[in-house]
Structure formats: structure tokens, C-alpha cells
Amino acid sequence: SYVWVRVPQVNLESTTDSIYMYYGNIAATDAQAPSSVWPASEYSMVYHFGEVTGTSGANSVEDSTGNTFGTPSSGITFGNAGQIGTTADFSNGTGISVGSLASPLLTAETTISFWLNAVNFASPARQNPFDHSYGGWGTMTIETNTRISWFFGSHGGNSSPYVNYTSQNLMSNGNWIYVTVTRQPVGYAYKWYINGAYSSGGTYNSAYPNIVSQNFTIGDGYVNPFEGRIDEFRVQKVQRSAAWVAASYSSDMDSFASVGAAEGKYTTSGTLVSNVFNPTYPADWQLLSYTTAGSGTVTVKARTDNSSDMSGATDWASCSAITSGSDPATGGCVTDTDQYFQYQVTLATSGLDTPTLQEIDVQYEASDLIAPTTNASNVQMTAVADADWTNTEPTFTWTAGADNAGGSGLLGYCIALDEADIASPNTLDPAITAGKLTGIDDGVSSVACPFIATGTSLDLSSLTGLSLVTGKQYYFSIKAVDIPGNIWTGPAGQFQELIS
């Protein structure tokens, strides 16, 4: 397809001006505005003749300015090879009428341009590329000596007084020729351009032209219809400069600008650094896997540290890329037993395609897999004497346990408070259930067991939601748990008392 755009300015002989075309966004709104590309303040008519084969009927040929409409005569065909895209062949018709036109649509100051490709410009003799009035706004006639006569005058119609302002030799058969003329009432000057280059010019009578309403026809006139194809027929209300005419010719010849390589929608590369991942305990980092899509390159690096701000981690520049499905230590920046993990992803485009990172996964396990070697002991209930009844929720204390040598240290203690009828003993495993403490917030993020107490005491009265009743027997069970979540494997330390 062919898209016409209006560019505010391109400097003469510039080698740095650029025009960017953005494409490929199917969600973009339609921004076509022919009247903005070909404004009525500057253009009288613009005919591309790009209609489909078989176009016929009144007003069926489009003027991009919207000022006029073209009605093709019988024999005019469309869909023929043009200088730009497809165009109309006028050989077997009597032109395209665009209606009766006068001022202000047609002006004394003007630029008229079109492409011609003649079958035989000399037979029949004196063919008309367009016609309005040879004694008024103007008419052109192709002479058999290869020149074109441009007639205009002060009569207003097809009668004298008028003058013929003739071009240099330019016509030939079977070739596309770009014809441009300009007329400027300031100084009464006219100019001929052939294929974008100035050819000849002069001055004309100051009484010319007299513009009155006459039928305007493209491809026919007062003598004979044109035999051949016409493309890009334009009439403007202003005199264009020689640079403008040259640029228009070069543009139509597709030699005005070079087309560079397509640029991606996104920058050529980008880097993402993840948040710091904290499993809450020292870990052995086992496997890094990720999936990608699209063309381009995805580079993944990883590093670890024992500080949450990664202040001791290796700089990314010193880390190597990690292949998906491999040990992250292969990148040189991941150390087992470090607690904090971070990854970096760099995406690099391939032409217009941008890769995407769809998923990333890191597998790990606690560096310390050994349960604590010493459980809590000497469990006591404060401020309560044996065999006494009490109506308080007491505080339990115990002597600290210990983790294994070289372990990560104790996190705290799994606690269960079991309620049973008197004389019906029943103990719970605090690694599995918390009994009456189930659902109560322990303030600890680890889920190694249902309820964890840190330190060496637990004040039951401080627990929101705990309710103890009279006539029940309560069992307090405790197991040490380390930071990775390993739990003492021996029997729970127990304390039994009647509490009400």
C-alpha cells in the first residue's frame, strides 16, 4: 500500500533529517486525515487515481482534498500500472470530469503537476492532459513537436484574448514524464519544470488569468483526449519553489530518502535485578531453572550473601551467566550456607523481536538438616504451688535446649497445650499440633510447627484467644526447633498440673 504523509519541513540538502514510521500496533486508533495531508488552503485538487478495476459512475473517482469528485467517461480504466501504485488509463475515453470550477478553488497563483505516460502523443494530434479554459484559468495541449502549450488569458472561457506559454521539448512515448508549471501574480512570472528540474520560464500579461466557472476535465479538452496514462494529478493554490518541485519528483521516484533498518519497539537490551529472597535460614542452593519466549537473548546471573542488603555479595560484572537447569554456583557468585539470594536478568533483542522471561525457579534446602541435640528441660509453672487450685493463666518457664554443633542455632520451641478430663491423660506432639494453642498468633514467621515460643518462657495470660476451663487437666508439651525448622526428635518435655 501507499501512505501519504505531510512533513512540516525537510531542509534543502539535509543529510540528517529523518522521518520515523511506527507500525505493528493493531490496537492503535486510525489517524488517517487526508484533509490534513492535502489541506484545502493549499490544494485545489489531488487525484491519485488509485481506484480499483471497474470503477465507474458519477463522483466515483476520489479527490484527496475533498474539494471535488471525478466522474470517469466510458472507456477510462483503473488498476493500471502507475508511477506510484496503480492509476487510470485514458486511452479509450474522453477524460474524467471534476465539475464546473472557478475562484476561489482555482487561483491565479498556482502549481500544476502530473505524470504522463503517452501511447502516441502525436496521434491524434494536440491531445489535452487537462482542460478548463484556454482563454481563462488555463488549458494544456501536447504539440506534435514534443512540447506542451499552456494557454491562459483574460476572456474567461475558450476564446481570445489568450497566450500560449510553451515548454521545451519533453514528450516521448512509453516513458513516465513529470510535468510541473508554476504561476505567480507577483511579478507575473511562470516556470516550467521537467522531471523535477527547471526548464524554462518568463512573464505573462498582468490581465491574465480571468477565472470564471468552466468545466474542468482531466485527460481531455477542446481538441483531443490524451492517449495514455496519467498519475498524481495535483493543482495547488500556491507557487512552489524549485526545491519543492525537485523534492516532489524525487519522492515520487522513491529516491528522495533512504530507508534505514527497522528499529525495535523497545530498547535493544534491558536488565532486571530481583528483590532479595530470604528463606529465613542458611541454605544450600541446588538448581536454577527458567523459561523464556521470543527471539533474542536472555542472560541470567545469581549471587548470595549472608547480609540482607547484599553488601558482601560479588559484583554482577564478575558473575557468569547460568544455564537453565543447572547449579547456580556455576555462575561463580553463589555460595552454599548463605541465607540471602538474588538474581539478575538481561534481555537483548533480535531485530524487531524482544525476548521475554516467563518463569524463574530456584530450588534449595536448609544447610542444617540435623535436629537439635538437646531439648528444653526443667519445665515449671511460676507462682503456683503443687496441689493448689488457681484461677490464673500461669507462665511456664524452662531451661534452654541446644542445637547440634555447627548448626544454625535454635529458633525456639514447639509448644502444645493439651486439654483432657481429669484422670484421662492425653499428650500431644507439639511438632504436629498445638492443642488449645491452635490458631493463636505466635508472632513467628516459621511454620515448622503450629505454635512456636521463642526464649525460655511463655505467659499464657498474654495469648489472645486462649480460654481454659475448670475441671480439666492440662498437659504442656515442648520440643526444641532450630532456625531451618528441624525439630527435636525425642519425647516432648511435659508438665502436668490441674489448672483452672
From TrEMBL:
Q: Which residues cross the membrane?
A: none
This chain's protein is named DUF2341 domain-containing protein
> DUF2341 domain location, by residue?
1-56
Q: Which organism is it from?
A: Candidatus Dojkabacteria bacterium
Q: Which InterPro entries match?
A: ConA-like_dom_sf (IPR013320), DUF2341 (IPR018765), Ig-like_fold (IPR013783)
